[in-house]
Specification:
2 domains; two-stranded antiparallel ribbon; about 30% strand; alpha+beta; GMP Synthetase, Chain A, domain 3; about 150 residues; three-stranded antiparallel β-sheet; homodimer
Chain lengths: ~150, ~150
């Protein structure tokens, strides 16, 4: 298995509204905004998708670590809450950030293993989770564009 | 419209495999891993979901800014590429980060407006995009847990 991966996604804004279809390999993910933000509410909004990515990554990292440690997880569930101040997005004057101000992650684990072993697993998840590390420490983003006239 | 939002998501690891279902309001998002990573390939992996969130947010921020500036976007499409070194996840010794090392975002715009106006729109998108700001600058993550014995 190659260690270095380039993951690729394409997102397309559908005509007129707030619907976006993103494609990752054979999968398609719809995003939209609720009606009160001008959308048609046919999918989670992008910030909710970001939290889905983090929750999913916490769970899959836990599965990976549990297999490695030969631990059984009877239940593994993550509740995530993201704090967003829309004023940062709307004003965009730099006084309030447009992104999330904080994320709270609460993990519920049911396991027959002693709590100390479960805590050690949780510490591994926190350290290894790729999406968690990306969001907590940030990632350099390089932007480029191509503009075409009709 | 309230300015401060708490967005909530719940992610549940399904029994045995690498499938995770995340719920945001009425929406459900499946994540999985490809077979070579031990999954069943029924959905994008979490890092692909992170890129979907970023691509969708770029597109929706563009729609919002275009409406504000009364600009018409005939096409708006974003290609994203994320660089991941799986060794960071597997070794977890701190020498290589487990998260993305870089993200490249290439935006394709077709618009009847002069290129300078489109460039000004792109600059606004870069400044305002909530997911972009979250990933570029990072977000504090507060972790807590509850461990239950069966």
């Amino acid at each position: 298995m190659a260690m270095k991966h380039n993951l690729k996604v394409e997102s397309v804004l559908l005509p007129q509204g707030m619907q976006v279809d993103s494609r990752a390999r054979q999968f398609s993910v719809r995003a939209d905004e609720p009606k009160e933000l001008g959308g048609t509410d046919t999918g989670p909004n992008p910030v909710e998708l970001l939290l889905c990515a983090l929750g999913a990554c916490q769970c899959l990292t836990a599965r990976f670590v549990a297999r490695m440690k030969r631990m059984d997880l009877q239940e593994y569930r993550v509740e995530l809450e993201g704090e967003l101040d829309m004023e940062g997005f709307l004003k965009a004057d730099g006084s309030i950030r447009p992104g999330l101000q904080a994320i709270r992650v609460r993990t519920y684990v049911k396991s027959a293993h002693p709590p100390e072993e479960v805590k050690a697993l949780l510490a591994e998840v926190e350290k290894r989770c790729p999406v968690g590390d990306s969001i907590l420490h940030g990632v350099p983003i390089e932007m480029s564009h191509e503009i075409v006239s009709p």
